[in-house]
Amino acid sequence: MNVAPLRRPITLLLGWLGCQPRHLEKYVSLHQSIARGTDAERPGRDVRGRNIILAFTPSPLGLLCPLSRARQTEAEQIRARMRQLMHSERDNEHDAGVVVHAFSNNGFFFLCELLRDRCFARQLEQFGGSDGLRLILDSAPGPISPAAVIESAVALGLCARQTADRPLVLRAVTSYLALSGMARRERSLRLVFERRWTGPRDLNRPRLRVLCLHGRNDRVVPLSEVDAWLRRQQARAGNSARLTFTRVDDFEGPHCALLKDEPDKYRDAVELFLRG
């Protein structure tokens, strides 16, 4: 794969409801391997990794009550670990950015709450560095949750500060990918939203990038729904934000699938996104 080297970012894995640390071990190994460009860590190492934070939806009650104590506690633990990494001398790689990998709707909703937390948002800005914030939204049944996460980040101004000399350009790329080895030829939707600065000091530097992955068992999202969502975003932005949308229907890179379905294709998709 012809890609640029990837420094070790801070990676936050937001698990699904009922998720346990052992369920995320393969994702930890995946991110460790991509960041180093070598084989994954040997089994038995600390599952969290040096720069990897695990977080879980506390309970069904916590899912229904955004302000529940359990979710506040989990959010504070994430912030504390972020602060620890930010002030650690040995992990002084602030320009490596932050990667948030959220699973299922539970992870999406928790991520929305985190992005609306001003303290957490400031942490992401401080630690984002030149590579900014990268979101991987994994196994969502539809476009509503990814849209909510993206809108939350944009609303906070994480990557959307608009000044006269730095107009904002948003490029939305959608691709339908055929998954092989299936009795029925279904489609998988890949959305990549790139939010870029443009200006004399920081030309085309990515600040917010989002990858949505759908597996073979996930509901297929009609392209018309995606087009309608993009049109709404464009209408909201108006001419002042100078947003442009580009759609690519054919993607020549790897197919996107759940890690448990097609691990090689899944890894290639994530690595291409993180390194690209």
From TrEMBL:
<keyword id="KW-0472">Membrane</keyword>
<comment type="similarity">
    <text>Belongs to the TMEM53 family.</text>
</comment>
<keyword id="KW-1133">Transmembrane helix</keyword>
<keyword id="KW-0812">Transmembrane</keyword>
<dbReference type="InterPro" id="IPR008547">
    <property type="entry name" value="DUF829_TMEM53"/>
</dbReference>
<protein>
    <submittedName>
        <fullName>Transmembrane protein 53-A</fullName>
    </submittedName>
</protein>
<dbReference type="GO" id="GO:0005640">
    <property type="term" value="C:nuclear outer membrane"/>
</dbReference>
<keyword id="KW-0539">Nucleus</keyword>
<dbReference type="InterPro" id="IPR029058">
    <property type="entry name" value="AB_hydrolase_fold"/>
</dbReference>
<dbReference type="Pfam" id="PF05705">
    <property type="entry name" value="DUF829"/>
</dbReference>
